[in-house]
Write a structure and sequence with these properties.
This protein is of the alpha/beta class. 44% of the residues lie in helices and 14% in strands. Pfam families: NMT1. Residues 77-284 form the SsuA/THI5-like domain. Belongs to the bacterial solute-binding protein SsuA/TauA family.
Length: 383
Amino acid sequence: MRITHSFFIKKIKYLGGKEMKKRVISIFLCVAMTASMLIGCGSSSDKKEDKSETSTESKGNDLETDTVRLALAGSAHIFNAIAEEQGYLEDEGLTVEYVNCENSEGAFQSLAAGKVDVLSNYGTNLPLQYIGSGTDLTMFAGYMITGCMPIIAKKGTTWNGVEDMVGKTVACEPNVFAVSGALLDKGYDPLNDVKWLSLDNHTDRIEAVRSGEADYAVLGTGMMYNVTQMDDIDIVSYCSDVTPNYSCCRVEANTKWVNENPNTVKALLRAWLRAQEWYEGHKDESKAIVAKTLETDEDYVAAYMDNEHYRLNLDPFKSSIERAWGYMLKLNLFDEGAEDINIDDHINTELYKAALDECIDKYHDENPDFYDTMLETYNEYDK
């Protein structure tokens, strides 16, 4: 669940009730649409010819296209990086072309414009927001089922549970359903029972806690290293403690693209499944890959990758998406008419299951425990 989507906010502002609903919708949709005129994505290989119609008969497969354009916005895609290094993409006859996007909104607008094919590192709440506004997207796999998203407070703060946020100021947006949804489950009205301090910059959120302007802040995974270096801040909890398996990042694409490229989707998922299997047995090597990709040191990535709350899983986790959708409906975070949308029409688990079955047929003996666990996960969360 990325929480960097309100980059247009220029001033600190307390929000609540109807004002909050209006604010959130305008941030994610109206302003984003305007900003998309100025924000775009740039391919890491712009000089390459468009291969979207290239035949892959020379490799003896039936891919609809042998190139998938994957959007990135200042973050790494661990599965794809491993799949490249280990040759899993080559085995499938696939090339994944990275398209660098300035931010989340730019990535979704580039998806709508046909400049990218697949998004992965852009949360669950934002694609749901677009679906709720009428955009025809399909979620067909997962990435992080839970990020390492800390909830922080001043040192010495006692934490009894998410209900401690009631009557307090929280530097976060209410669309972070891992927090607001948990409050709903406990019978609270998050939009009115909590003061939400809207700050796009997560460093500003930390400073708000330090100054006493906010009692708590919810931070992104990438802030873990900074927080662990601060003597006056405590991590009182994590989003995944508040809402287990909350669904951090899903993999989505335009429904039309998914429907027109099922074999390519399955090939991509087979490569990424094998990458997850490798990742789980090679955590140290994976940290080095991520550090290299982000051009940072391993201490930075180890701060979250070594944490138990950081959990990667390619499974779609359909039930977690459905729960998130339900939370956001109850919070009135969608445009009018979203209640008529069947979110299951925008979740495709069949392609993932086909890819999993094919991997089990070919690679089960390489790591039976891994593939048995992935099948059990599918049967529990995707039926």
